[in-house]
């Protein structure tokens, strides 16, 4: 069983439309849509925005639905000049950019007393996503790199520069590293797929409104194609 998480309704709408035999269960205010997508058993859910929602949602997918992999699909702000609006980033790993225990000597992003700074994504899922992306989204570029997450919509150049420099992230969003942390602690493979909606700078708000729909289209299309090719 594959768990598919999107933070917002818009990010999972198309995926839910493609599902059949759907039954819905509501837990912690989240609607879990269990059914068949491209012949595979999946649970698709809108987690809500931010790290806490994403963490709760992932743990429910694991404990209650018994998923054996989790994929997060959605949009993000680019942290690099070569990653353009519409392009897709596949997480090699994820880091929480707003975790700061530097006062105790920890690196930025390091969760105190946890044995890792970043949460590595599953290499087989990355390979599969890249292959599928080239097939279904041939007009865009697909990147493999670090996804950074925080409970912040990044929309200032200075903030973006700080995050980009410290964490060497490819894109920034608000859930991926929480999903990564829960997957890591439960020893479950996971992947974050993010299409770029904005450049996480002073123009982010305007770009987001303009390009959100197209970016979601790209990531949802990939998610559906990837499910078809997924072997469990
Ligand atoms: N999701 C899409 N764009 C984002 C941004 N600039 N910051 C955080 N999350 C985002």
Task: Write up what this structure looks like.
- Residues 2-226 form the Nucleoside phosphorylase domain.
- Keywords: Amino-acid biosynthesis, Hydrolase, Methionine biosynthesis.
- This is adenosylhomocysteine nucleosidase.
- One of its GO terms (cellular component) is cytosol.
- 37% of the residues lie in helices and 30% in strands.
- The protein is built from six helices and ten strands; from the N terminus they run βαβββαβββαβαβαβα.
- With 232 residues, it is α/β, with parallel strands linked by helices.
- The termini are close together.
- The chain is globular and about 50 Å long.
- The protein has helices at residues 9-18, 51-63, 123-136, 157-167, 176-186, 204-229; strands at 2-6, 20-27, 30-37, 40-46, 69-78, 88-96, 119-120, 142-149, 171-173, 190-198.
- Adenine binds at residues 75-77, 153-155, 172-174, 197-198, 200, 204, 208.
Précis, in short:
Pfam families: PNP_UDP_1. The chain is of the alpha/beta class.
Number of strands: 10
Helical amount: 25-40%
Instruction: Determine the mean pLDDT.
Output: 97
Adjacency order of strands in the biggest sheet:
5-9-8-6-10
N→C terminal distance: 7 Å
**N-to-C SSE string, H for helix and E for strand:** EHEEEHEEEHEHEHEH
Q: Please state the structural category.
A: alpha/beta
Bound molecules: adenine
Instruction: Give the second-level CATH assignment, the architecture.
Output: 3-Layer(aba) Sandwich
Largest sheet: 5 strands, mixed, barrel
CATH superfamily: Nucleoside phosphorylase domain
User: Rough shape?
Assistant: globular
Count of individual domains: 1
Report the radius of gyration as a whole number of Å.
Answer: 16 Å
CATH topology: Rossmann fold
Low-confidence stretches: none
GO biological process, one term: L-methionine salvage from S-adenosylmethionine
Keywords: Amino-acid biosynthesis, Hydrolase, Methionine biosynthesis
Pfam families: PNP_UDP_1 (PF01048)
Pathway: Amino-acid biosynthesis; L-methionine biosynthesis via salvage pathway; S-methyl-5-thio-alpha-D-ribose 1-phosphate from S-methyl-5'-thioadenosine (hydrolase route): step 1/2
